[in-house]
Amino acid sequence: MSFHKIIDSRNIKLFTNLTKSKGNYLFDSKGKRYLDMYGNIGSLPVGYNHNRLHELNLNSPDIKKLLLHRPALGVNPPIEWKEQVELLYKNYCPDGLDFMYVACGCGSGANENAFKAAFIKFARNNYSDHTMETRLRTSLDNNEPGSPDLSILSFQKGFHGRTLGCLSTTRSNAWHKINIPAFKWPVAPFPQLKYPLEDNKLYNFSEEEKCLEQTEKILKNSKTIAGMIIEPIQAEGGDRHASNDYFIKLRQLALDRDITFIVDEVQTGVGSTGKMWGHQYWSDDKKYLPDIITFSKKMQMSGYFCKSEYKTDSPFQTFNTWMGDPFKIILSNQIYNIIVEENLLENSINIGEYLMDELFKVENKTGRIRNIRGKGLFIAFDCDNNFLLKDRLIENNINIGTCGNQSIRLRPSLTLSQKDVDFFIHKLKKSLL
C-alpha cells in the first residue's frame, strides 16, 4: 500500500538523507543540498552528524542495551540512568530550581504536566478544608472539590501545544483548534511592538503597560486561575517579543497572587537566544525566576525544571509507561558538552548579530523585508507573502519555515557560521527578485 495512503503526509516537504547531511547542510532524497535554516522545527542543536555525537559509540555495550531495550524508567530504570539524570540536572537546570521531570514525550506533554503541577499545588493550598475522602470520591465523577474548576491564563498569539489542555492555551492558529473542544480558560493580551525598537520606545512602553493593566484586571476578577504560561518569544504566533521589564512586571503579578508562573522554553531553550534559556535575559534577581520552565526540541527530550514544591502528591499523577528515553538523556548531555567546548552560546550571539546586520542591509536595499527582530540566532522578519517567499527559498536551496501571518522564522543550529550566513543572504536576495 502507498506510503501516502496510510499516513497523513501532507506536511512533508522533502525526505532527508541523514547519512549524507552534514553540519548545517541537509541533502534530500534526490541529492539536492540545502542550507538548513529551519533545523527540524528548531530541534537541531548542533547540526547534522556532528563528530562529537558520533563519539557516542552506538555499538558499545552500554549504549546498545539502551537501544535494544526501552525500560519503564518509572519503576525499573537501568543502573546507569541515575548518573545520567543527575548530570542532566547539573548541566541544564537554572540555578534556583531544585526539581525536574523528564518524562513528557514532547513539548505538549511538558506543558500539560506543568499545568497539572500548578493545579495540584493550587488545590493543596486552597482546598485543604475538604476531607481527602471527599476529594478522592468526587474526583472520579469530575466534580468539585476533587476535580476543581481551575484554569491557566495564557496570552494572545501564544502556542503551547496540541493536547487538550495545551490547545486551550494556544491562541496562534485557528486551524489547530477548530472542531476540538476546549477549556474555557482566560486569555490576556500580549504586546504588539513596533519596529525599529529605538524609534518606538514611547509607543512600545505604553503598549506593554496597557497589556499589563488588562492582565492584572483579569487576575483580580478570577479566583480560579492557578497559573499563567508564557513564551520568552512567541514563536508560532509570529516571533513576537516584549521587553525584559514587561516580563519582570508580569512575574510580579503572579507573585502578588501566589499563582504559578510557567515559562514555555520549548522553542527558546538550549542556546537559540544566546543564553541557555531565554528567560535568563530578564533579570539576575532570583525573585523573578519562573516557578516552572518547560523544555523539549533541542533538549532531545521533554520535561520541566521547577521548584520542589511542585512535586506532585502522588508519583502516579505525572506518570507514563516509558517515563522518558535513557539514550536521549545521554545524547542531551553530549550536546551540552559540545555547546560548552565550542562556545556555541557566544557563537549564537555573534553570528546572530552578523545575520541581523546583513538582513538590515537587505531591508535597506530592497524594501522587501521589514520588522527584523531576534535574540541570538532566534530571528525572524516580515514580508508581504511569507508562504511564497518560503517556497522560493526552498527552490533556492534554503530549508526554512514561516510563523504568524507574515513572518519568516530562522531556526538554524547553534553551529551556524558567517560563511553559512553569507550563503543564506545571497539566496534570500535571489528569492526576493
From TrEMBL:
Entries under SUPFAM superfamilies matching the protein: PLP-dependent transferases
Protein keywords: Aminotransferase, Pyridoxal phosphate, Transferase
Biological process per Gene Ontology, one example term: gamma-aminobutyric acid catabolic process
InterPro entries documented for this protein: Aminotrans_3, PyrdxlP-dep_Trfase, PyrdxlP-dep_Trfase_major, PyrdxlP-dep_Trfase_small
Record carries keyword Transferase: yes
Family to which the UniProt record says this protein belongs: Belongs to the class-III pyridoxal-phosphate-dependent aminotransferase family.
Pfam family, one: Aminotran_3
Cofactor: pyridoxal 5'-phosphate
Protein name (Swiss-Prot/TrEMBL): 4-aminobutyrate--2-oxoglutarate transaminase
A GO-annotated cellular component: mitochondrion
Annotated source species: viral metagenome
GO molecular function: pyridoxal phosphate binding; transaminase activity
